[in-house]
């Protein structure tokens, strides 16, 4: 039971990491960036390639991946969202343009890495098994959880205490007013995408490290769960997404423990459906005040 | 000639059918993505009812499956719609995706569906059959576009509040589009099953949803043939690449993605934008139409048409409106003035149902307070908005035609059968709309989109749209804001003319000169309360009014402004 | 009025539909091209006209892990046959992008436009169930090389396979594992959303019952899952003698790696999908001790196997897997069937493909019966020191 609880927390921390990038862009800019899963996948492949080529240690690898992610994020915004600004169908068109761009990214990944999954070398980050109070934990799980915590706290700090964060909150509240007050909306938009994609790519590389491989469908496999998490947490709410990721991970592990694993895939969506019907603002979301 | 291309042609048809199930919700502005679930339920159910032998020797047994599939899809959409249609935008999208995934897991775990192993059926769908279904759908949508129901869909898509205020039952329209989407998705599910002869739970996954959405948006959801364009394009691109000898592998998805991106970025409205030049300019109706014939007469002057007592609205700890008593009599021009944030807009929002009051009782034209907007509109309340709420992707004329919603009859089913009475009704609505455009002086701009109009013209268009409903009570929310004094004077005379025609007018205005010129009675609000009421000139000289207007205005503005227009 | 117009509309729609709804009974007259029948018999058979063979594999998207090997194996087989002379083959390769739509379209193209003599593929049974009914009604022989699901040859008399059914592979690997490891209780893990693995699970259950082995844990997952620890914890708690895993390659690597990481030391037994050098490459140390039932082994000394592996590795720069080996064999089986009567017409291939008896291939002696089902000895392998070794 305790072991399953721990399993759920570890699984949930990946969900949360994927979801906060998603929810950040939505919270600030009201964009649902469907290219996010593709960027997430790219993060995994790039991480594996960089690790294989340079043999740099894990704690340097992730900043490198994040840098790549930030660049990718800026490009995604430039290509798929900026040209649509102010159009009547901005809302739908952004969904489609990001789906299209996501497809292009996946095709490029295939061009570079082929059709077979790739993985980190086993000795790149050797996994060890620890046991605390009867709970078995691997070192990859610990690293994942630690990194997830660091990233989330870092993001929370960034949003609440830095100039960029303040501008982001201003844009989230009212883009027009923010502009009038001298916020460079274009730069904040780019910054938001850069942050979101940096988080996404790091999450992708982490998942690849955890799973032991990365295929081109890595992002697609977490996309739907990601949707569930951001809604459960309250769309646009960072803390909500983090909490919801963990709640969902634990709920899934408990379903396997107490019921039957065939119903595991149902948990996220049943929970999501119920929350949307009963409390559309999400478990942790607020009605009007939008947290970034 | 088509030998060897049957599958391609049929796949294009199936793609179009799937896209139509997205088209119908996009038309009404709903981002609903549960189609995979509806299709799955319909396809699996159809395997229980479709006969294994051709009917009467030669008719494809799928003709039994289609209505069943449509019914299953529609019923599922209705049941799902009840709880989820309260949601909007991305929330609706994700809730419906969740529904689709739940269907997949349930079918995967069910016994009778054979789980992941899937089911096999006979292949009863041929390419001509598939295209026949597409033709029927295209016909249904072609006839829907310029009908009263089609305009209602468009109005809900463009602006739900304005649509409701024009008498469109927003909830019903959204539900109708949702159910239609379920039905079409059901038809798709059945067609898919009996064309490929096999279904598994994974057939109807999220990927299917994405491709349907992409096809519908790519083709364009503003014209009826959009899904066919979209599906044709997506079927043709890989074939073209093959024909050009491009290596498969990563190049195919790459090129398709780039094409899709280009279309979305540079052709707003999808591929159908390429055909938009073919649209005819709106035609002025012939002189033989007397638009005001057969409209219900307005009540005699002096008849009480609205009476409310103790009306109040609270937002959290803020009283936007409190304790307002109001009586309106037919034929009067009632001005409501007050500083910014005094609660004027909140007041009129409650009078036409856009906001439910927190306290108070009464009725407007027999409709109790707290009813939904379309009920007030149907009873004869029509309005304009302070921040214009025009239907931006409709022409000026179509904007006004939406206004005729409450005084015209549903024409869609009759249009399907080309009944002359539908044509008559449509022409009558057109004549009525045209008369309003002439009344406000916009007849020469009927074919433009509102975005191309000047600020003053946009305000006039709002008035024309409101007038097209042949209102008993017309509510104008700051109609002269931003107009120069010549325009404002014209507007004042227009309002007086309306009063002469027997229309009761309630208007909110800052322009005191205009209020004094046009009104027969004046109500002054401050801090949500009525501080003065009566004959305009008397009220204007009331010292409390003067103080409210000149004294503290600047200090109160910002904060409450926000609340009022949130 | 309203009711009347609705009924009217319904009638109009029905009338319109009825015209398009007629089922046309296409009868395929077996056309025979005399240029496709040659002179001589067996080894000496020569056919003047080029014999066109269609191939449909999943070269992109989900099943590309298999399709790429199949394309290469088949192409190499026919190149060797062309070099041997007598008959010239042309392979027309189609990619079904792992979708049913493209698979059906590819079959139609090959059957009607290219007018091939026979078709090899598709990669997945899922697609075969729908494409093979088309091949059957068009009278085109189809030879599956990886369609291992139950019920494929039963689609019709034009449908054959040279791919060892999953149940046979598992039926061999489980008893072999039982014998060498002394299994009494096992845990079963399978992908419940995939038809291939779900059908394999049914087989596994039957074989285990037959062998008197107890199932102490039964867990499912989906290939798209991003975490398997909860299921593996349940398996670990049951403390089985072995874990039987029915998974697609996408989930095999994470599952095996994670199981080893969590300290599950019980041997892991799998079927056809395990039989790939790529898997070993991705698993590295975690692959140690995997038991794999399959149709082919790089370690077996079947006729021509060593040359096949050497040539393939030289030609494509990577070691072949079972998919490549089976596709390569398919080329030779078709050649056998054509040479039998020195006739490459569809009917002749259909008649002779079901007559192949104990053909000595790199898979070992292989037969195809008149129902289209393959018969061969499965190979059970264990991974020791990073290489497949026959158990």
3D structure, described in words:
The complex is a heterotrimer of chains A (292), B (566) and C (391). Helix content of chain A is 73%, strand content 3%. Chain A is mainly α and 292 residues long. Chain A has a domain at 21-216. Chain A has a two-stranded antiparallel sheet. In chain A, helix 5 (139-161) packs antiparallel against helix 8 (185-211) and helix 9 packs across helix 10 (238-258). Chain A is globular, with a radius of gyration of 19 Å. The two termini of chain A are 35 Å apart. With 566 residues, chain B is an alpha/beta fold. Chain B folds into two domains: 6-205, no CATH class; 304-565, P-loop containing nucleotide triphosphate hydrolases (Rossmann fold, 3-Layer(aba) Sandwich), CATH 3.40.50.300. Chain B has 22 helices and twelve strands. Chain B has helices at 6-27, 35-49, 62-84, 89-109, 127-144, 148-158, 160-165, 170-196, 206-219, 226-243, 251-266, 344-351, 373-379, 396-403, 412-416, 420-440, 455-467, 485-500, 512-518, 536-540, 543-550, 553-565; strands spanning 119-120, 198-199, 304-315, 318-329, 333-337, 359-364, 367-368, 381-383, 473-477, 504-508, 521-526, 529-534. In chain B, the strands form three sheets. Chain B has a six-stranded mixed beta sheet, with helices on both faces. A four-stranded antiparallel beta sheet of chain B has the order 4-3-6-7. Chain B has a two-stranded antiparallel ribbon with strand order 1-2. In chain B, strand 9, helix 18 (485-500) and strand 10 (504-508) form a beta-alpha-beta unit. In chain B, helix 1 crosses helix 9, helix 2 (35-49) packs parallel to helix 4 (89-109) and helix 16 crosses helix 17 (455-467). The radius of gyration of chain B is 27 Å and the shape is elongated. The termini of chain B are far apart. Residues 552-566 of chain B have low confidence and may be disordered. Chain C is of the alpha/beta class and 391 residues long. Chain C has helices spanning 2-20, 64-84, 100-113, 125-138, 166-181, 195-211, 229-238, 249-261, 277-283, 305-316, 322-341, 346-353; strands at 51-57, 89-95, 118-120, 142-144, 159-161, 185-191, 214-221, 242-246, 268-270, 291-294, 359-361, 364-368, 374-375, 379-384, 387-390. A seven-stranded mixed beta sheet of chain C has the order 7-6-8-9-10-14-15, sandwiched between helices. In chain C, helix 3 (100-113) runs parallel beside helix 4. The radius of gyration of chain C is 23 Å and the shape is elongated. The model of chain C is unreliable at 1-6 and 25-30 (pLDDT under 50). Classes of the chains: A mainly alpha (292), B alpha/beta (566), C alpha/beta (391). Chains in contact: A-B, A-C, B-C. Chains B and C meet through helix 1, helix 3, helix 5 and helix 15 of B and helix 1, helix 3, helix 4 and helix 6 of C.
């Amino acid at each position: 039971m305790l072991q399953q609880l721990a399993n759920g927390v570890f699984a949930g921390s990946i969900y949360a990491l994927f979801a906060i990038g998603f929810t950040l862009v939505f919270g600030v800019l009201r964009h649902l960036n469907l290219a996010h899963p593709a960027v997430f996948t790219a993060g995994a492949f790039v991480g594996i390639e960089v690790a294989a080529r340079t043999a740099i240690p894990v704690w340097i690898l992730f900043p490198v991946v994040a840098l790549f992610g930030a660049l990718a994020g800026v490009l995604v915004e430039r290509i798929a969202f900026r040209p649509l600004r102010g159009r009547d169908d901005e809302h739908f068109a952004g969904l489609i343009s990001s789906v299209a761009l996501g497809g292009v990214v996946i095709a490029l990944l295939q061009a570079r890495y082929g059709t077979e999954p790739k993985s980190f070398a086993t000795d790149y980050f050797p996994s060890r098994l620890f046991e605390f109070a009867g709970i078995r934990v691997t070192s990859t799980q610990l690293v994942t959880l630690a990194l997830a915590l660091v990233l989330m706290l870092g993001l929370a700090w960034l949003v609440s205490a830095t100039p960029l964060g303040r501008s982001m909150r201003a844009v989230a509240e009212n883009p027009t007013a923010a502009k009038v007050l001298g916020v460079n909306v274009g730069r904040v938009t780019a910054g938001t995408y850069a942050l979101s994609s940096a988080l996404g790519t790091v999450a992708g590389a982490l998942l690849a490290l955890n799973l032991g491989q990365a295929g081109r469908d890595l992002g697609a496999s977490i996309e739907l769960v990601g949707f569930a998490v951001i809604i459960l947490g309250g769309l646009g709410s960072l803390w909500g997404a983090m909490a919801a990721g963990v709640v969902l991970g634990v709920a899934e592990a408990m379903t396997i423990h107490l019921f039957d694993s065939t119903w595991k895939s149902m948990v996220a969506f049943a929970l999501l459906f119920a929350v949307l019907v009963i409390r559309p603002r999400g478990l942790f979301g607020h009605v009007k005040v939008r947290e970034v | 000639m088509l030998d060897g291309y049957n599958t391609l042609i049929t796949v294009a048809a199936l793609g179009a059918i799937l896209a139509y199930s997205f088209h119908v919700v996009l038309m009404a502005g709903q981002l609903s993505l549960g189609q995979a679930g509806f299709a799955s339920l319909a396809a699996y159910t159809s395997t229980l009812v479709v006969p294994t032998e051709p009917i009467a020797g030669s008719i494809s047994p799928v003709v039994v499956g289609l209505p069943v599939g449509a019914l299953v899809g529609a019923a599922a959409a209705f049941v799902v719609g009840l709880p989820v249609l309260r949601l909007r935008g991305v929330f609706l999208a994700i809730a419906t995706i969740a529904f689709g995934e739940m269907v997949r897991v349930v079918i995967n775990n069910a016994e009778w569906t054979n789980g992941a192993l899937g089911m096999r059926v006979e292949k009863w769908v041929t390419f001509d059959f598939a295209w026949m279904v597409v033709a029927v759908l295209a016909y249904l949508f072609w006839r829907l576009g310029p009908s009263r129901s089609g305009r209602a869909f468009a109005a809900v898509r463009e602006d739900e509040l304005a649509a409701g205020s024009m008498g469109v039952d927003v909830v019903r329209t959204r539900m109708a589009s949702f159910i239609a989407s379920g039905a079409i998705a059901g038809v798709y599910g059945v067609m898919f099953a009996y064309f490929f002869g096999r279904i598994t739970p994974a057939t109807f996954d999220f990927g299917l949803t994405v491709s349907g959405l992409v096809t519908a948006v790519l083709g364009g959801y503003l014209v009826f043939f959009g899904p066919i364009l979209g599906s044709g394009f997506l079927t043709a691109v890989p074939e073209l690449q093959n024909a050009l000898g491009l290596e498969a592998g990563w190049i195919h998805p790459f090129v398709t993605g780039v094409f899709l991106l280009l279309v979305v970025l540079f052709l707003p409205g999808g591929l159908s934008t390429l055909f938009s030049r073919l649209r005819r300019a709106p035609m002025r109706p012939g002189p033989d139409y007397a638009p005001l014939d057969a409209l219900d007469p307005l009540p005699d002057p002096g008849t009480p048409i609205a009476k409310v007592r103790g009306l109040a609205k609270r937002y959290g700890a803020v009283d936007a409106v409190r304790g307002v008593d109001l009586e309106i009599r037919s034929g009067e021009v009632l001005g409501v003035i007050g500083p910014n944030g005094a609660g004027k807009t909140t007041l009129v929002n409650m009078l036409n149902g856009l906001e439910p009051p927190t306290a108070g009782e009464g009725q407007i034209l027999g409709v109790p307070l707290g009813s939904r907007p379309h009920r007030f509109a149907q009873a004869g309340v029509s309005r304009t908005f302070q921040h214009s709420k025009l239907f931006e992707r409709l022409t000026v004329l179509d904007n006004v035609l939406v206004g005729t919603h409450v005084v015209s009859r549903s024409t869609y089913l009759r249009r399907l059968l080309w009944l002359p009475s539908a044509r008559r009704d449509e022409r009558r609505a057109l004549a009525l709309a045209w008369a309003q455009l002439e009344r406000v002086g916009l007849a020469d701009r009927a074919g433009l989109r509102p975005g191309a109009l000047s600020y003053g013209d946009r305000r006039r268009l709002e008035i024309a749209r409101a007038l097209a409903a042949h209102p008993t009570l017309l509510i104008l929310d700051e109609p002269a804001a931003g107009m120069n004094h010549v325009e404002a004077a014209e507007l004042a005379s227009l309002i007086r003319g309306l009063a002469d025609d027997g229309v009761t007018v309630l208007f909110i205005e800052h322009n005191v000169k205009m209020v004094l010129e046009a009104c027969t009675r004046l109500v002054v609000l401050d801090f949500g309360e009525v501080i003065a009421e009566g004959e305009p000139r008397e009220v204007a000289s009331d010292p409390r009014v003067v103080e409210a207007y000149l004294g503290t205005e600047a200090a109160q503005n910002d904060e409450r402004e926000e609340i009022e227009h949130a | 009025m309203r009711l009347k117009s609705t009924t009217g509309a319904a009638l109009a729609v029905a009338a319109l539909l009825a015209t398009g709804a007629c089922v046309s009974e296409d009868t395929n007259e077996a056309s025979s091209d005399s240029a496709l029948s040659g002179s001589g018999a067996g080894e000496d058979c020569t056919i003047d006209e080029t014999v066109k063979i269609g191939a449909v594999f999943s070269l992109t998207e989900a099943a590309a892990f298999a399709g790429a090997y199949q394309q290469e194996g088949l192409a190499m087989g026919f190149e060797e046959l062309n070099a041997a002379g007598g008959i010239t083959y042309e392979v027309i390769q189609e990619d079904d992008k792992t979708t049913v739509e493209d698979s059906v379209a590819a079959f139609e193209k090959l059957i009607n436009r290219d007018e091939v003599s026979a078709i090899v593929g598709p990669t997945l049974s899922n697609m075969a169930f729908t494409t093979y009914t088309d091949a059957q009604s068009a009278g085109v022989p189809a030879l599956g090389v990886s369609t291992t699901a139950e019920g494929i040859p039963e689609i019709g008399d034009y449908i054959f396979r040279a791919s060892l059914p999953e149940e046979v592979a598992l039926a061999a690997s489980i008893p072999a594992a039982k014998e060498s490891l002394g299994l009494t209780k096992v845990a079963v893990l399978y992908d419940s959303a995939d038809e291939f693995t779900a059908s394999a699970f049914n087989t596994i259950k039957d074989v285990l019952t037959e062998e008197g082995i107890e199932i102490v844990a039964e867990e499912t997952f989906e290939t798209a899952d991003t975490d398997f620890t909860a299921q593996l914890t349940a398996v670990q708690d049951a403390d089985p003698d072995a874990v039987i895993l029915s998974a697609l390659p996408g989930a095999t690597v994470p599952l095996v790696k994670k199981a080893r990481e969590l300290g599950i030391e019980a041997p892991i037994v799998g079927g056809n999908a395990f039989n790939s050098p790529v898997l070993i490459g991705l698993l590295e140390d975690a692959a140690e001790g995997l038991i794999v039932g399959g149709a082919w082994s790089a370690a077996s000394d079947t006729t021509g196997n060593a040359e096949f592996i050497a040539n393939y590795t030289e030609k494509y720069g990577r070691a072949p897997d079972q998919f490549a080996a089976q596709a390569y064999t398919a080329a030779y089986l078709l050649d056998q069937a054509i040479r039998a009567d020195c006739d490459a017409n569809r009917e002749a291939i259909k008649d002779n493909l079901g007559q192949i008896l104990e053909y000595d291939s790199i898979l070992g002696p292989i037969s195809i019966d008149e129902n289209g089902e393959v018969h061969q000895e499965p190979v059970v392998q264990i991974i020791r020191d990073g290489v497949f070794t026959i158990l």
